[in-house]
User: Which sequence fits this backbone?
């Protein structure tokens, strides 16, 4: 749960359940409600302006899909909820845009929460918004926060063009298609994340620095966030499969199994990224310590060679009256030779020890 | 289990089960028992002074809520227990304020233990007190330790003002409302904790020190404590949902699922904080080691440059009779030049190796 | 499994099952068998001297409790086993005092193994001994190794004084009371351990040393040992609850649930201690590395200041004929000034970098 | 999921389910479809050129095995799918060569996905390709990506030569044989990996370097990849065993249990390699730190011996007028003696401390 | 799976299932097959020379135990398998001596695989060999690799001497006795391992070195190997208990529960050793780092004391014409005093900081 959501959520404490408060950022100004009404032959599209029109939408034999963008207008949602007979707690959850993916069976309809992922434009950081689906007998309601992008557009196009079998199948297949659209979108997000991970890996080898560490940690945290957004989806989809709700036809089962597989693949990929980032952390830390060791060795080699030489020079810099070596003809060159010999011996020793 | 509780608890060893000993700190002086008696039309409020009045409260068709603050008066609780037909072990558990959240089915009533969280006023450290609920057919008993704050006040207000549907529904809905009030309070606590974590994160970047380490560890320990207080609540709530007790109506199920979701969100947030703190520990340790490396490098650079120079100065400080260089016209400037050349060479080498 | 037990155990290899060998240290010299025979009205106490008397104890309508201290007398136990119809494997297990807590249903009786904890007198190190219980229809046999302390004394007193309801209830309640006595004793042990952990925590802050590390590790190992002794008890107690053995009356179920809760609390406390010790390990290691860093910094500061100064002194210690500075009037004070300037510059730099 | 697959996969987002897109690298140019048709007496072999011939293959009493190599020809696969009545999602999965091993029951046929492992020729790095099996009543379809090697050749030979009982048993035994061939191949791959691990272990002892670290990490990542490819196979095989599909005869159960055991052995071996690599990582890090310590010690010993000596030489290099030692007859040798004594003392001290 | 086994195993790839290849080292030259035939009254012992004699062994009312040592003679085993009606996969598994412990129900007989542990004579390193048991209605076949030691000898002696109840009970009790003999042997192995762990612990305190690290890691790896050999045995034994095979009488259940307990004890002990070794690793690493710190401190103390002193000596070694101190009467002693004062100050400072 993000900080800002926590703040709003904590302000709700003490209010009776079902009290409607919008939790989350207001991501769009206008609320748009697009109605698609179709069966195999016909398909009509309209924009809902007055929520009293909802009544007319119920009980039709055709499949009706109402897609609402923007969930901050409490009153509109409340009226809509009344009209479709939604439980107050469902409307409350649609407004609280910090739910985990979940599925709830209310008998006459299923309430499904998903999280749609989006990439921040520059930094590529991942954020998510809540998508709520209501699957009734002949209708699907979808609620998006409406930030940017619309992953449902391809589904809409398929309905309009009667592409695939979407027009032949019922509301449950529509719900599946919307879930599938959300999951498909994960792959796009993951691909971008993969690029960032690879870029980081290259930086790690070419020029690791404290910034690299910060980036590894921030990506790791993103992976944890992603995992939390996607992991419960497994149970949602397998819950839909297992459920003996009359709302889900048997034939849709195969498709749900397919989207389940995709979810597993997404989770697998996230896990792989996490493993890679953990490995990168290890490599970073050990490269830092390698660098320290390299610095260390230079210090040792230089210091160990010159300290004895300096001492030798110091000895012959003493002012004793009686130092016979000082008067020797070749005393000075002899000291030079001794110094060179010591230095050479050290170097050979270090080479042998592979410290150089 | 806290130390002081352990001490009291260990003193109880050897006493027969059901022996009533108050374990915990006495948090309030006066014991207050407020009785709320309501149905859809009426609502009366009174303060219980004589525990013999309890008898009169049983068997009414209205919903009766007795809220007791302060659990150190063993005798009063014992009489109350007798009056409502509570098992001696239940009374014992109400007195031992170090229980984990749990639910126990005694046939005629359910015994539910929750932990309410409070923030220490200055340090913001989290502590908890025990809230015991007894849900009978037409009554709810609630026992608080009565330290500070009263998370049940909003529920009381809703009953008085007949806000929401609380007056229309039974004792099980009241019990749910009390649990919900406790869980809602968690969000307030978590928000404050979130602030502390963020503050710590800023300190970690601006000015990390041993104190930061201590704070990270203390916050981590708090998260473990929190987790232990909240985690079993999941099972309590899902236990209430699953239970085919006649005490819980089916319609309350939806509300319990809602509070279950909130509990999951609380646990999720705690986990996120734990992850953040673990990451901060990593960053702290690596920033400390970075600092050591920086110190190291300066030492190496300074030492490695000046050690050979000092040796060179030492050589020409020797007192050999026969040192031709000493008499050369430009011997002295030549040595200076040599020294500058060595130093410059080193600096270039270090720059190339990126050690500077 | 402790080393000495492993040694004895391995010597048993190859013998047929049911071969009776005492594994463990002989902890008492005399074997004491105290018989308590009671119902609601009467209570008689006697000491068993001849194991043939056992026969007389069976089949009585009263509850009979035979408490045996010392399990190294193989022959006596064998005769006792015959008399109460115990399976040879049960007698074998009573003798092998290194069992994990377990419950085994032999139809006519339940065999329960517990571990009783004791504190070493000086060091406070925790050791454990095996307590075996046989719960038959109207009798309970208890076998202790008989080292020191007797946690069953309070139970005996309650029977003698008819305190609580112990005299009114059957053998299963007696068995519960004995288990409860063992679990209650854990709290006493844990309190002492808590004191040791706190003491260690203080030492960690005031004066950490290699000894601290050793103590942390030894306490951690004790916690692992404790956990192994207590953890399986959960299953033993919940096994007794679930079991539809006719030996356990329904009314005892509440009490078993209570002792189960206590076991969970004990395990929780052990886990908390483990967490604390792990945190202390982290703090210890990081305080050691902090200390190294502190030492490091002093070295760096002193060395980095004086190495250039020494070089400067070396330069003017050279013996070149032609060194004009040496003859300058203020050459010497100028060098002193230069040295002070370099030192001051360094100090300022270090202060700025916060290395001092 | 590999990067290139992620890229292709993300491009598929928005297309209706069952849309056929080949995901993976095109590993072969020609698509080869070999048909083996056999019963106990006869065995005929042909190459499928026109996919309309498929119709003729259905409904025969003999066992028909169609082995397709190359899965990038979407159209051919689509026609084949139509002909054998495959669900569009199955054909889609055959094309998406990045599936995890799985088994799906479509009533009339089972769809099984396996991963076949191959070693990169030079580096020995492990890659995998997807093998899809369709087990129908009298037929088996197998789809390989067709990179290199053909693990099915031995099975084909056995059919041709009527070796073993393969000709006597049905399509389910054939499917088992193919799975067994894939699992047998794992052992070959693992043997090569084992060689690489051993080689790395030797390098670790003889000449550890940053390259060793990189290799350990890359092998660890390969093990994770391997594990992901093999682990779900357990469930696939045990799923086939448990399944009460009429497609799998009881007698095949024993063989499936055998292949299950092999899978467990493969996973065990992978785990062993992972453990070995983790141990190697520990040894690498500690050998690096040992090396630093060794370097450290030399520095300490040399510096600690010569620093006091240099100071002593410095003292007698001072130019004070009044330094009586300088005029002493044996001043100079005395200083030498003092220096030797100090050096010897240090050496003895270090030897005693075992720092040398 | 060991490397050599992997090599042999990978060579088997492609052969049809049931192909008999011996995998493992040939551990004995002659194959010995000892037949024990007994009932309560009689017991005859013979050596099987011709495997056609097997036929005569079947269908007798007495219990027949055929103990085969050496499993590399493929032909002999094949004929034996035919004679006792064993499935080809069972014979294959007997030959592949790298199985994990497992139990397989073939209806008419149970196939049980165990691993017997042996200690390498000098190093004490643990290796294991495979023991296969076939439990039929009136017969038990046991297959050992026949390296060294014979843990079945005590069982044989008990049968010959009619010790215990082994002669009175059936083939299932015999099978239990053999499993028990194998498990009993584990305790002997564990005792030796315990000695090695203790020895290592002492070395760790008295004289830790790189060899100690290597030993810790090798023991840890042995523990992992042990665990893998013993862990699945739990399921084997509990599988025998649960199994409603007519081959296992109810009375044997108690004995199986006993051997199950022993298995748990073995696993517990292995876990304890692992924990101890992990703790030793921590202590080793921290003792190494303590040593580095100690070395560090000596360097710091010596260097920090002498570096300023050397500088001071250098100052008065300068050759400036105009250095008034040099001519002072007590200049030289004054410098000595200053040096002593500086050194003493440093020592006091270090003492206070507890760095000495």
Assistant:
């Amino acid at each position: 749960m993000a900080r800002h959501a926590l703040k709003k959520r904590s302000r709700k404490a003490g209010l009776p359940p079902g009290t409607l408060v919008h939790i989350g950022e207001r991501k769009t100004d206008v609320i748009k409600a697009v109605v698609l009404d179709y069966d195999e032959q016909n398909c009509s599209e309209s924009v809902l302006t007055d929520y009293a029109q909802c009544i007319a939408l119920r009980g039709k034999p055709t499949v009706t899909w109402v897609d609402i963008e923007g969930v901050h207008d409490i009153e509109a949602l409340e009226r809509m909820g009344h009209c479709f007979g939604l439980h107050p707690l469902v409307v409350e959850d649609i407004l609280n845009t910090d739910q985990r993916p979940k599925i709830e069976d209310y008998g006459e309809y299923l309430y499904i929460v998903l999280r749609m992922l989006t990439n921040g434009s520059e930094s590529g950081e991942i954020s998510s918004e809540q998508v709520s689906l209501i699957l009734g007998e002949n209708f699907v309601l979808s609620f998006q926060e409406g930030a940017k992008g619309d992953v449902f557009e391809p589904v809409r196009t398929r309905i309009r063009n009667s592409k695939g079998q979407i027009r032949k199948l019922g509301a449950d297949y529509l719900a599946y298609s919307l879930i599938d659209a959300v999951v498909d979108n994960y792959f796009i997000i993951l691909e971008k994340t993969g690029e960032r991970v690879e870029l980081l890996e290259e930086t790690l080898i070419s020029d690791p620095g404290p910034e690299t560490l910060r980036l590894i940690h921030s990506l790791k945290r993103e992976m944890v966030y992603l995992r939390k957004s996607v992991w419960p989806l497994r149970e949602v989809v397998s819950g839909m499969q297992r459920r003996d709700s009359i709302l889900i036809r048997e034939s849709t089962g195969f498709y749900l199994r397919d989207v389940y597989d995709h979810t597993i693949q997404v989770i697998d990929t996230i896990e792989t990224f996490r493993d890679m980032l953990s490995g990168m952390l290890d490599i970073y830390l050990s490269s830092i310590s390698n660098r320290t060791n390299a610095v260390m060795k230079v210090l040792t080699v230089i210091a160990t060679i010159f300290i004895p030489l300096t001492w030798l020079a110091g000895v012959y810099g003493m002012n004793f009256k009686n130092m016979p070596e000082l008067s020797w003809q070749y005393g000075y060159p002899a000291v030079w030779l001794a110094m060179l010999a010591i230095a050479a011996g050290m170097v050979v020793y270090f080479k042998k020890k592979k410290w150089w």
Remarks:
- The longest strand of chain D covers residues 110-119.
- The interface with chain B takes residues 317 of chain D (CB under 8 Å).
